[in-house]
Specification:
This protein is mainly alpha-helical. The strands form three sheets. A two-stranded antiparallel sheet has the order 1-2. Strands 3-4 form a two-stranded antiparallel ribbon. Strand 1 and strand 2 form a beta hairpin. The mean pLDDT is 85.
Length: 309
């Protein structure tokens, strides 16, 4: 009557033409006359629609969508630009859906599924989790091949979780200081812990090991090629490698500083990566000059006492 009924199709040369059957009175039928429409029964009788159905006028969607046989309604939610996707998903789950279910506005027999960008977010999170593991394995095997030893790479990789902790603390400090900027008349700056920010940890894992490699390698050279004791070898390694470590750390920090501290077009997208890498490297530099030498010295002394006279 209105949209027509699909009857068949035929091909005219290379074009497929659909055939629809329409009613002559379908488009001219008013709501007042709808109950008088003729209905043909299986017994070849003609009865009005009002004799077999009750017509109620209501307001509803113009389309009926079903997924796996279930009536489905799709609600599109676009968070503001200043709200991260993870934050938006959490707000919808906790503050909207859970709140409506607690109040009884959403019955228990209605299933609510968050999809779209949320599904892509979950897939990206799972992919990143796998990438972290693969990156750790590759870094360790590469260090084993370089040092030809299974233990020394573990000393170097001990700085990775400390560097990650430095990045997390740096992100917290950045948001803490950025929240006080409006007090002195400046624009507030904040950075959410989103998926792009998490990419900074993947980059950080490959960069934080650079400075520890210098310390551990120099200490190994001192022990193997000289008559230094473990303590002297460690002190010499720190003294000789202090300048390269300081130069590499300072140049990286100065290079990332404009991305982190200077607001501008496009900086919001990759600022999180810069914060994680910048503060992670700063924390790793301190660990490389304090914790790592002590740990390496302990390992060298234990190895020296276990070696036969």
């Amino acid at each position: 009557m209105t949209d027509g009924a699909f009857v068949d199709e035929f091909f005219l040369d290379d074009d497929k033409i659909d055939i629809y059957l329409y009613s002559n009175t379908g488009t001219n039928t008013s709501l007042d006359n709808l109950d008088q429409l003729p209905i043909y029964t299986p017994g070849n009788a003609v009865v009005p629609l009002a004799s077999i159905a009750t017509i109620n006028e209501t307001v509803d969607t113009n389309t009926i969508r079903r997924v796996d046989g279930q009536r489905t309604v799709t609600l599109n939610i676009i968070p503001p630009d200043n709200v991260a996707l993870e934050t938006g998903v959490r707000i919808v789950k906790d503050d909207v859906i859970a709140h409506l279910r607690d109040r009884g506005n959403i019955p228990s027999d209605i299933n609510v599924t968050i999809s779209g960008a949320s599904d892509q977010l979950d897939a990206t999170r799972e992919s990143l989790s796998g990438n972290y593991i693969v990156a750790l394995v590759i870094i360790y095997l590469l260090l084993v091949a370089i040092f030809t030893h299974w233990g020394y790479p573990l000393l170097i990789m001990a700085t990775i979780p400390l560097g990650v902790a430095g990045g997390i603390v740096g992100l917290w400090l950045f948001n803490l200081v950025g929240g006080f900027l409006p007090v002195i008349g400046l624009q507030e700056i904040s950075q959410a812990f989103d998926m792009i920010t998490m990419l900074g940890f993947l980059i950080l894992m490959g960069t934080v090991v650079n400075n520890p490699i210098l310390i551990v390698h120099q200490a190994m050279v001192n022990v193997r090629q000289t008559t230094m004791s473990a303590k002297q070898a460690m002190q010499n390694a720190v003294e000789t490698r202090l300048r390269p470590i300081a130069m590499s750390t300072l140049t990286t920090i100065c290079g990332l500083a404009p991305l982190v501290f200077l607001p501008g077009e496009g900086t919001e997208l990759y600022r999180g990566v810069g914060i994680i890498v910048l503060f992670g490297l700063m924390g790793t530099a301190l660990v490389t000059l304090t914790f790592l030498p002590a740990l390496t010295l302990f390992f060298l002394e234990q190895r020296h006492t276990q070696e036969p006279e």
